[in-house]
Design a protein that fits this description.
The chain is mainly alpha-helical. It has helices spanning 4-27, 29-45, 50-68, 72-98, 103-117, 131-137, 139-148, 154-168. The protein has 8 helices and no strands.
Length: 181
C-alpha cells in the first residue's frame, strides 16, 4: 500500500517534471529536444510504475502543449523539431495503448497523441498528419482508437473520439501523398 508520504512525493516529482518541460520549451529548441530525448529514453528503458509512466507521458504532452503557446517566431523552430520526432512519440503511444496500462495512463497517452497531432509551426490549426498516412503508419494506434469508441470507459471513448474527429476532419492535412485525398 502506498503511504501518504509516497503520494506527496509523486505529486512533487510530477510538478517538477512539468515545470522542467515548460522551462525547456521556453528556453530553446535544444533544451526542448533534450527533455524529449530523456523522456523517450525513460520509456524505452521501462518507466516502471504506472505513476512514473504517467509522469513521463505528461511531460511529453507538456512539451507539445507549451510549444503551441509560444510566440510565432519561437514556435516555428520548436514545433518543426517536434514534428520531426512525432513518429517516435506516436510509436511509443501505439505500444503503450497496446499494452496493459491503467485507464489514467491510457487517457494521458491519448491526450498526448492529440496534442502532438495538433503541432503546427505556422499556427494555422492544421494537423500534422492526414488520415491516410496516420492509419498506414500507425495501424495499431488507429485501430486502438477506433476500438476505444465502444468501450464502457467514457473518458477514454471521448478522448479517442476527439482524436479521430481531428484526424478525419477538415483540419487534417490532405495532399498528393495521402491516399485519402
Amino acid at each position: 500500500m502506498v503511504g501518504a508520504g509516497d503520494q506527496v512525493a509523486r505529486v512533487v516529482v510530477n510538478r517538477v517534471a512539468m515545470v522542467m518541460a515548460v522551462a525547456a520549451v521556453q528556453t530553446s529548441v535544444k533544451a526542448a529536444e533534450a527533455v524529449l530525448n530523456s523522456m523517450l529514453q525513460t520509456l524505452a528503458a521501462g518507466a516502471g510504475s504506472d505513476s512514473n509512466l504517467r509522469t513521463v507521458v505528461q511531460v511529453i504532452n507538456a512539451v507539445a502543449e507549451e510549444s503551441e503557446g509560444l510566440e510565432r517566431a519561437k514556435r516555428g523552430p520548436v514545433v518543426r523539431m517536434l514534428n520531426v520526432r512525432a513518429d517516435e512519440v506516436f510509436k511509443v503511444i501505439q505500444e503503450m495503448l497496446a499494452g496493459n496500462v491503467s485507464v489514467g495512463a491510457a487517457e494521458d497517452a491519448i491526450r498526448c497523441l492529440h496534442n502532438w497531432l495538433r503541432l503546427d509551426p505556422a499556427g494555422t490549426g492544421m494537423l500534422s498528419q492526414g488520415p491516410g498516412p496516420f492509419s498506414t503508419n500507425f495501424p495499431g494506434l488507429f485501430e486502438n482508437l477506433v476500438q476505444r469508441l465502444v468501450q464502457p470507459e467514457g473518458r477514454l471513448a471521448s478522448a479517442a473520439a476527439e482524436v479521430l474527429a481531428d484526424v478525419l476532419g477538415p483540419n487534417a492535412q490532405y495532399d498528393a501523398q495521402d491516399p485519402q485525398a
